[in-house]
Structures are given as C-alpha cells and as structure tokens.
Automatic annotation (TrEMBL):
Protein name in the entry: Reverse transcriptase domain-containing protein
Source organism of the structure: Putridiphycobacter roseus
Classification via CDD domains: RT_Bac_retron_I
Domain (Reverse transcriptase): residue spans on this chain: 139-275
Pfam families: RVT_1
C-alpha cells in the first residue's frame, strides 16, 4: 500500500483548491474573526490564473512557546488563489511525485501533512496528533535503537528557494534546461514567487499552501535518506531519527545536511541533539502531566469534579515542570487543556481564573488558547473576561506585542463588552499592524459615531496609495467599493467580506 494514500486517494483536485482557499488563507494562530468561504465562492466565478503583478503580503507576529514572536503572513488573496489554482490543476502530477518519493517507505515518515479533517474546512492543522491512519512507527523502529538523533532545518520556510521546487519535481538539470514558463513546474515556481513580491527566497509562513510546497521538497530529501537506511519520523521540518550508535547519529546529521544543501536548505546544528535510550515515547513532561494523581474526585451533577487544593497542586506542579524545561510554556498550555476537561467547584474556578490572568501576562503565548480552554469550558463571566482583556491589551501596547492587543479587542467584540480607558484608535494607527488595525476599526465602528472613524478612513486611503498589498484586508474592509482596485471593487460591490458575520 502506498504510504502517501492521503495524497493520492483522500483529496481530489477540487477538494485541494477548496481546502486551501476556504481554510488556508488565514493562519490558525490569530483571532478567529476572519473567513474566506465567500472568497472561495467568488474565486470560482473567475477565470484563473489571473494576470496580476507580483504582490506583497500582510505581516503578523504570533508568540511562540519560548516567548519569541513567530512572523506569519496573510497573502494577497488573488495571488494566493492563483497559486492554489496551479496546485490543484497539477494535483495528479503532484500525486505521482509523492507516490514516487514515498512508495518504498515502510511507514509514513511525514507526520504533519495535508489531510482530510472531519468537519473542517481546511486540510492542515499545526497541532493535530498522529492520525491513526499513519500508524505509530516509533514502537517498531525503536526496538533495536540505542539513541535518538533530533534535528531540524534552520529557518525552513523563509529559506526555501523557489527554484528548488522544480528541482524536486523534475530534477535540477532538467529544470535548468527547461526554463520556459509554460512548463507546469515552472508555473508552480512562478506563482509561488508571486506571493512574495517575485522573490525566489522563502515561502510565507501561515497560508496552508506553503506546507504543501515544503512537502514537495522534503519528501525528496526523505527518499534519499531512506536509501541510506535511516529510520525517522518528520514533523514538517523536525526530524527524530532512531539509530544504533552515537556514531550513526552523528552520521545522520552529516547525511541530512548534505541532502538539504541540494535544495539550498541548512541543518540547524544548534538544535541538533543526541539522546540515549530508553526514552518515553512522548515528551517526558507530557507523560508526567497525564499521570498526575487527581485525588479526592467527587461528583457534581454527574460530572467528575476536583477541589481547589488538588487544582493548586496540579498548577504548581505544571509550573515547576515548565521552569525545569527551560521555561517551555507549551507545558502550561498542555496543563490548561487538561484542566479544561475537569469540572471545577466555585472556589476552584475562581482560583484558576486568577492564576491564568497572572500567567497570561507573564507568558503571552497562552493568549491563543484561553478562549477555548478557559473562558468557554469554565463559563467565565463577561466582567472577568473584560478585566483580563484590558490587562492583556495594556501589556501588548507596553511591549509592542500587537497580537495581545488584537486578542483583547477581539474578546470585547465576541463577548460584547466595552474596553475602558483605552485609546484603541490611536494605538492601532500608531502600530501600523494590519490585524490590530482591522480589529480596532471593527470595534470602533460598533461603538463610535461615524465621524470618529475618519482617521481610520484617511489612513486606509494613504495605505491604498503606498502599501496596499501589506494592508489589503484593512483597506478593503474600510473603504467603499468605488475607490478600490478592480479585482477588489467587484467583490466589495457584491458585499463580500473577509470578516465573519458575527463581527460585522
């Protein structure tokens, strides 16, 4: 059975296009206020690919678990559907590529990839666990191993050389001899470059098409590493290789580096690590958190409930684990998700919310999860959410972490409260952060008189002249249809919006 059956059987060409456009234009790690379903419908009325110049893109920063921002991108939408169109039109050829590169795999090397997801509009998710369809190869390949070699690619997506896409698909020599843009592989290169102002270096982090582009290249690397006899699993650009000796682990790093260089990619030696076995099948802290002894469990309306003493013990234990692991905030993230499954008594809930309020100001990475795993499961009241939102907003302004500001305003919109003593318009305009700007505009449009919005409109007019692509969603949503570029004019005139109706 072909190990990449999810590419060859599960996803059709039309499903690929639909999933990439309706669910892959906006990165997951931003306030859940944007939607491109209507844009997908509109794109099907167009004759693709459109003739457009290379475009710039919207910048957005999202905090990582090590409290360092990750740069994300929202591509210019018409350049994006051009790329999605070329990918879907040539999907049968790409399926053949994946089959050829993976047909000799004994298990699916790539763990995080495009796949059909139940009841989802998108095909890719950063944090989904291994699908049961992919199996659990670690159980077999660890048996005769004595070490694990951990490696990753240095700045993987920003380092992908667009021409290396063609090298992977048809070979470097062939692609160099056949540069005509009429060739399908050169079109994929061309429309990928067009998302990034025509530049050959780097693909955007955020749009789901980039994950497919990276798989095109990295499955070619996988094939060569498989020929050398290495057994590993890969999570996008993170490698976990099981070896019999320390020397073999060192050789794995050298061989992987050699294969990556063929595509202008570089191994991140600073993050390379050789770990002796035995080792837990998952990260040690995951095992420890999952095996925490929740004592004194009692029933409230048929639900398993824990008291404040047990909750405090678990949170303290989680914080200690986090600090012992180099302040890896992913540990707190995981702990909060565990707590979300428990029912809490009134005092326990109060304690949890105050602790989360404190922790999220220390570790803004947690901002991304507290809506789904604190506010909603624990039915946090509006007044408390408002207090947290205002503090997070102030923290964001003070530290130029505009993601925090955006989330504070997003919660005000979602839970319908006003933010007090906060100069939203002035702060967002000063920031020139596109996501912060559009969410601020939506908030002020809801609460302020039309004349108050004039500065937003004036800024949109200036950005339209000088920096449209970098602020396209802000300019598009703020300005009337008759002053927009032609492609946007047609959409706006038909009242198409990229903002979910709940926030209009």
């Amino acid at each position: 059975m072909n190990q990449y059956s999810f590419y060859s059987n599960e996803i059709t060409s039309s499903e690929l296009f639909d999933g990439l456009v309706s669910g892959g234009l906006f990165a997951e790690k931003m306030p859940s206020i944007f939607c491109s379903k209507k844009f997908l419908e509109h794109s099907k009325t167009l004759i693709l690919p459109l003739t457009i110049k290379p475009t710039d893109y919207i910048r957005y920063s999202s905090m990582r678990n090590i409290n360092i921002p990750r740069p994300l991108a929202i591509p210019e939408p018409f350049a994006y559907i051009n790329q999605c169109h070329i990918l879907s039109e040539n999907w049968p050829k790409l399926q053949t590529h994946f089959r050829d590169k993976t047909k000799n795999e004994n298990f699916k090397v790539s763990r995080i990839h495009l796949r059909k997801l139940k009841n989802k509009d998108y095909l890719f998710e950063m944090n989904y666990k291994n699908s049961f369809k992919d199996g659990y190869p670690e159980q077999d390949i660890v048996i005769r191993s004595k070490y694990i070699a951990i490696a990753d690619i240095s700045n993987c997506f920003p380092s992908i050389y667009s021409h290396s896409i063609t090298w992977s698909l048809v070979g470097k020599n062939y692609s160099k001899k056949n540069r005509d843009e009429s060739h399908w592989f050169n079109q994929l290169d061309f429309y990928t470059r067009n998302l990034k102002y025509g530049e050959t270096n780097g693909v955007l982090i955020g749009p789901h098409s980039s994950n497919l582009i990276s798989e095109i290249i990295l499955t070619s690397v996988d094939l060569e590493m498989q020929k050398l006899g290495y057994q590993y699993v890969r999570n996008i650009d993170d490698y976990t290789c099981y070896v019999k000796s320390y020397e073999e682990a060192e050789k794995f790093f050298l061989n992987l580096s050699e294969q990556l260089k063929k595509y202008e990619l570089v191994l991140n030696y600073k993050k390379s690590e050789i770990i002796p076995l035995p080792k837990a099948s998952v990260q040690n802290w995951v095992t420890k958190l999952n095996h925490f002894n929740f004592t004194d469990i009692y029933q409230v309306k048929g639900k398993d409930t824990i008291n404040t003493k047990v909750l405090k013990g678990f949170l303290d234990y989680s914080i200690e684990l986090m600090l012992s692991e180099g302040s890896n905030v992913a540990i707190l993230n995981y702990a909060i998700k565990i707590i979300a499954k428990w029912n809490l008594e009134k005092n326990s809930k109060t304690y949890l919310i105050k602790q989360i309020h404190h922790l999220v100001l220390l570790y803004p990475y947690l901002i991304q999860i507290i809506e789904d795993f604190v506010f909603e499961p624990h039915s946090v009241n509006k007044k408390t959410i408002q207090e947290i939102a205002e503090d997070i907003y102030d923290y964001g302004v003070s530290n130029n972490i505009f993601e925090a500001c955006s989330y504070g305003i997003y919660w005000a919109l979602k839970y319908d409260f006003k933010l007090e003593n906060i100069s939203i318009k002035e702060d967002s305009i000063k920031s020139l952060d596109c996501v912060f700007l559009i969410i601020s505009y939506l908030y002020d449009r809801k609460h302020q008189r039309k004349i108050y919005l004039k500065e937003y409109v004036d800024l949109a007019k200036e950005l339209k002249k000088d920096d449209f692509d970098r602020f396209w969603i802000y300019v598009y949503e703020v300005l009337p249809w008759d002053v927009l570029p032609i492609n946007y004019k047609l959409m706006k005139k038909s009242e198409l919006s990229f903002i979910k109706s709940d926030y209009q």
